[in-house]
Design a protein that fits this description.
elongated; de novo design (two linked rop proteins); mainly alpha
């Protein structure tokens, strides 16, 4: 795994940022623009993905970072669920639904791999203080 210097280096964050842009564009047009509840919830959930990745990274420890990644993964699932509601309400077509759903699945998979890596890494504890290697 490549060294991560800042949260902007994290692929899941980059993909999450693109998802937010797409969700905002989608919810600004057509019948979606008038469905204030679903529009607001989808926006907040998509933004939550990136926000939790960033906040967890900045907290300083792998264990806490993993917890925030898990929250981000949950938000990704929330967006996926809301996509079904948007499809059912006629706010998006099948093609847009499938593309956005796949984006969510890709982000979720990347988050899962990062969580697994952090949990199995010898670099547990604070990322600012190296954990001593046992003799």
């Amino acid at each position: 795994m490549a060294k991560i210097e800042c949260f902007e280096d994290i692929e899941a964050w980059k993909l999450g940022r693109e998802l937010v842009k797409r969700i905002y564009a989608l919810t600004n047009s057509g019948s979606f623009a008038k469905d204030f509840g679903l529009k607001d919830q989808m926006r907040r959930a998509s933004v939550s993905i990136c926000s939790n990745i960033a906040e967890g990274f900045e907290r300083g420890g792998d264990k806490e970072f993993s917890q925030f990644l898990s929250i981000a993964k949950g938000s990704c699932g929330e967006v996926r669920s809301q996509l079904y509601h948007a499809l059912d309400a006629g706010h998006l077509n099948e093609s847009n639904f499938n593309e956005l759903k796949q984006d969510c699945l890709n982000i979720s998979a990347k988050l899962s791999r990062l969580i697994t890596y952090l949990k199995s890494s010898a670099l547990t504890g604070s990322k600012y203080k190296p954990t001593p290697t046992p003799p």
